[in-house]
Amino acid sequence: xxxxxxxxxxxxxxxxxxxxxxxxxxxxxxxxxxxxxxxxxxxxxxxxxxxxxxxxxxxxxxxxxxxxxxxxxxxxxxxxxxxxxxxxxxxxxxxxxxxxxxxxxxxxxxxxxxxxxxxxxxxxxxxxxxxxxxxxxxxxxxxxxxxxxxxxxxxxxxxxxxxxxxxxxxxxxxxxxxxxxxxxxxxxxxxxxxxxxxxxxxxxxxxxxxxxxxxxxxxxxxxxxxxxxxxxxxxxxxxxxxxxxxxxxxxxxxxxxxxxxxxxxxxxxxxxxxxxxxxxxxxxxxxxxxxxxxxxxxxxxxxxxxxxxxxxxxxxxxxxxxxxxxxxxxxxxxxxxxxxxxxxxxxxxxxxx
Length: 353
What we know:
Residues 1-23 form the signal peptide. The chain has nine helices and 19 strands. It is α+β, with helices and mostly antiparallel strands.
């Protein structure tokens, strides 16, 4: 009886939050700008209610289309170190998919515990690493024993969904493009506050881009945190600044084209992702650039990390002119029993379409 009441309470809470999220005057504080290339869909995982929210892009704004029940780490709180059984909180990309056969090959029969498949998160991200956080292997996966999901706090740190729900969610995911934002509580802004938060980040981004295009070295470097910035190749701020001064001293100005800007927010940082087309006297490439920004003591957004991933031009040009259509690219069947090769215990999942 108590278990049923807890489940009913969770359903009612989720329904109320979903109604509020759909209200025209309120928008999720974590999704500040979406687009049809990098952020046609974004997943938000709310740990306090054990709910996955699936948002789609609606002319730059997030629009809630589905919710799903999930389980998280056995211990509450943000992940700090390997083996603490907590689920990390932040903004992450899905960078790999492991199907059921992959899981069995890697882990033998123990791989069955991950269900029909697993999407790998890029934990620890640059912010996590800068904070000294350890561990890895954080996945969004399903399970061979679905009743465990009703417990809420049940995994070793992963996000666990029902098998049919994971198969459904997979239709909206693209590897290295789709983000998942993990929070303890999903918060909402009035549209006015949401726009103000978004514009603060975009104004900072535009100032950075303008200084870069003009090779205004001092202005450009002012957008980076002197204390917290670290580059995986150039090191801390001083060596990075020295390198950039040398680059800017070369003759000619670069031609930089930016498109598909995405702005996602964690509790204390934002992640800005965009397609960058860069041409100079020596370099001509195109790819995904990701900036991680945190507020300084004066509440100004400063870049603390940046990452670059080259995208082949033929793939980029072809994909950019196509509208994303949800499709099943990861699973061979909609029926978990046809995918599974070992024992599978299913329940009727809670989800809202």
